[in-house]
Amino acid sequence: MSADLTRIPVAGPAPYDVLVGRGLLGDLPPLLGAATHVALIHPAALRATAEAVRDDLVAQGLDAHALEVPDGEDAKTLQVAGFCWDVLGQVGFTRSDAIVGIGGGATTDLAGWVAAAWLRGVRVVHIPTTLAGMVDAAVGGKTGINTDTGKNLVGAFHPPAGVICDLNTLETLPPNDYLAGLAEVVKCGFIADPAILDLIEADPVRAGRPGNGVERELIERSVRIKAAVVSVDLTEQGVREILNYGHTLGHAIERAERYRWRHGAAISIGLVYAAALGRMLGRLDDATADRHRSILQSLGLPTSYRPDAFGALLETMRVDKKARGNRLRFIVLDGLAKPVGVDDPDPALLAAAYSEVC
Ligand SMILES: NC(=O)c1ccc[n+]([C@@H]2O[C@H](COP(=O)([O-])OP(=O)(O)OC[C@H]3O[C@@H](n4cnc5c(N)ncnc54)[C@H](O)[C@@H]3O)[C@@H](O)[C@H]2O)c1
Ligand SMILES: O=C(O)C(=O)C[C@@H](O)[C@H](O)[C@H](O)COP(=O)(O)O
Ligand SMILES: [Zn+2]
Fold first, then answer.
1. Number of domains in the chain
2. What crossing angle do the helices spanning 263-280 and 175-191 adopt, rounded to 10°?
3. According to the model, what pLDDT value does residue 2 have?
4. I need a surface site. Which of 4, 130, 228, 251 has the fewest CB within 10 A?
5. What are the residue ranges in the chain where pLDDT is below 50?
6. Are residues 251 and 126 in the same domain?
7. Do 112 and 212 reside in the same domain of the chain?
């Protein structure tokens, strides 16, 4: 067990820990349960890490396989999931075996879904290697793939047996991917922990650089928010919806961009939109609404989108998972750190709020 380790527990029907620290890859084997076969699902960027983990597991007597999948969102398809299931079948994966997702949120979403559906559910452990993966995607058991009509439309709630956030893996992350992850960190600041916003605003240039002096605190604070929420509402029957702040428009932008944008970049615009909507609904004060744009801009994240896109985005938002029938649902703020759900807002307000992100 590594010495420099923070352990953040996640409660619920299948409790587990999120480990945060450096040099933690050796903490994987005890999380694999009774597995004799292990599949390490990873993109090309994590090939060296996955092969090192595989060699370590093989040396410990396990039958470990590295499965390379396409990069980023290209992995979140039925075809790629099918490829993974074919390999599991060929290897002879049984219910006691384990899958490990090594990569960003796209990889762990895919790996989680592959594990959730194989034999109706086998063990999965996540090793997130992006900021978004550590603070969000790998924690909470939401797994899934995209379809032609929208983002994450197929998936399951399938909690991992453990999450290993080894901060050393962030050293190779491209700067734009690091910044994209900060959008989810900022989201946590607005919905639950304003100290996150203070830490970033104190020096946004520092906060935007991997390995910065506040990195670990930002990650641990964000993980604690996510852990607290999913611990009481794994399947999004209520409070978990707050984690979707900024995502209704954000996911629609990702689809409009054919998933070529980083998730966090689209969510950044979605956050500014949600703030504008909250303000127009008479819930959020001007200063807090403006703070969304200023903090995201200070990090170099996008805060505006094409003026002509609203019609198409609105159509996509209709298949957002929070929608019920033809009633759209948004998360807005009633004030700093006071998220609430709003049903079926006036279409004129939706359009007016959009004019603030053009
Ligand atoms: N399940 C959830 O609760 C949840 C939460 C947030 C986001 N997500 C999903 O996660 C995805 C976004 O995650 P992301 O921003 O991590 O994107 P990503 O997985 O696409 O990774 C971004 C890029 O970084 C590369 N990469 C990853 N780790 C690296 C490393 N250590 N060094 C060098 N390159 C590395 C990847 O190959 C990719 O090119 C989206 O699909 C989003 O929907 C899911
Ligand atoms: O964990 C959650 O719940 C979230 O909403 C976190 C989001 O940041 C994440 O992007 C999630 O994948 C979105 O979920 P979806 O149900 O809207 O697809
Ligand atoms: Zn997200």
1. 2
2. 30
3. 67
4. 4
5. none
6. no
7. no
